[in-house]
Amino acid sequence: MTTTVSEARTIRAPRGTEISCRGWQQEAALRMLMNNLDPEVAERPEQLIV
User: Fold this and answer.
1) Which of 5, 13, 25, 30 is 20–30 Å from 19 (CA)?
2) What is the model's pLDDT at position 23?
3) Using an 8 Å Cβ cutoff, are 28 and 48 in contact?
């Protein structure tokens, strides 16, 4: 299965103090990963292979 850039969804890293994980250590790891895909933060998110 091949996904092109036009089919890809945009991932936005959460901001603020509301967390979606059980603790801040887990939330920090999740946000670091999501920041790599966030077009406002990452250098070239469309070229990142995950």
Assistant:
1) 5
2) 96
3) no
